[in-house]
Amino acid sequence: MIEHLLPKDVLGIRLLRANWVGTGAFVVVATATTVFPSFMAVSMALFSFGLLALGSWAMLWAFSRAVQRSRYELIGVGGLYFLAGCAPQAVRRSMLAALGVQSLVAVAAASVRPFSASAFGILVPVYALGLSGVWGARYGNFPDRPLTDANLEPRNPNRNGNNV
Question: Quick check: pTM over 0.70?
Fold first, then answer.
């Protein structure tokens, strides 16, 4: 099953791995917090805020790179953060599966132990969205922006946001 979640020979495999490492660690911490709510409360809060911070930074970084690329390409939010139409199916499936697992575990843990530290897990899916955004901004294949009077600068086919 792991072969489907971490496809070989795709661009940005490190981002996919980081997403799944964070997801696996979150599942472990959320499960431990559900079983031992008093003992794991601080760990759950710190871990959730840490992934929220990493995901927020990644989302902002991806947005800033996408803004630069949008001078030459048509980039939408669905393509950037949900990889719709800009990524291979294997990459999109992996990133969205990690987002789904994080969301499901967060809601389940918060449902089992409401009004406890398990509720902090609701913040974690920002991590998966942020890494998806980084993948889309860095490696996504978006359609060219049509040339208009306002945009007369020709597109450089070698430019994928690396110079930003």
Answer: yes
